[in-house]
Amino acid sequence: GPKILQESGEEVKLPDFSPPPPDGKTMSIVKGSERAGTIRMAIDLIGGIERFIKPGDVVFIKPNVAFASPSRLCATTNPELLSELISLCYKRGRAKKVIVADNPINNPQSCFRLTGIGKAAKSAGAQVLMPKDYYFENTTLKDGRLIRNWPVFFEPFRNVSKVIGTAPLKNHHRSGASMTIKNWYGLLGGRRNIFHQDINTIIAELAMLIKPTLVILDATEVMMTNGPTGGSLADLRRKNTMIAGCDQVAVDSFGASLLGMKVADLPWLAKAQAAGAGTTDYESLKPLTAEITG
Fold this sequence. Notes:
The chain has about 290 residues and is an alpha/beta fold.
C-alpha cells in the first residue's frame, strides 16, 4: 500500500521506493529500433514489470517534460515509450492508478501538449498532475548541502507506492549529460536555477533524495550536441539502445559511454556513488543484454 510519510513540523520526507535486492537482475541493455519493444524486453530481462508493480499499486512515473518541443527532437521523454510503460503497469502489473507529473522549465501546459506527453499519458489511462503552488512541500535531505528546507513537487508522491523515472539520454552544456538522475531536477521547486552553480552536487543530492523503484534510460535516438534543449535533428544520433535498471548511478554510468564520455567526465556520478546512491561500475552488475532485430 502507500508509503507512510513522516512529516516533521512543516517538512516532508520522501519515502524510499527502491525494490528488494534484485538477485542478479539490476540492469539490462537492449538493442533495437522500436521503443515499445525494447522497453518491454529491457524490463522483462530484470524480472518483468510484475517484479516491480503489484496489484493495487499507485505508481508515479516521472518523465522528462522540461521543454515545449516536439518529441522527434528527443529533448523530452518519448510519448510512445511512456504509453507502453503506463500500459505495462496497468495490464501486467495490475496497478490501481498511474500518475504522470513533472514541473517543467517552460509553461507546463505547453510542455505537456507540444511534447505529446499529456495526450499519451491520458490515452493510456494515467492521471496527469500539473504543478500548482500548493503541490509543493519543503524537504531537507539528510547530509544534504543544497536540498535544505527546499520546496519539492510533493503531490505526486503523496499516496504513491512505486516511482519510475524515464528520461532520454542527452548531452548537457552544464552537467555534461542529462539522464535518469538529472531527470529528478524537474521535481525541485523554488529558484532552482541557483543550483546550476553547483551542478555536480545537486545531481548527486537528487540521487540521494529520490530512491526509485525503477529507471528507464532511452538511448534510441541520442542528443549528442547542443543539449539539453537541442532543437535540430542534426544533434541526434541513432544508438538504438534501451536501458532499464534499479541502480540509477549504474544506468547513467553506462549512458555516459553512449555519449562518448567516461564516468570521470561526469563528477556527479562519483559523488552519487560516494553518497551510497549506487555504483558507477555498471559492469560489476553484469547487465543482461538482448537484441531485437527486424
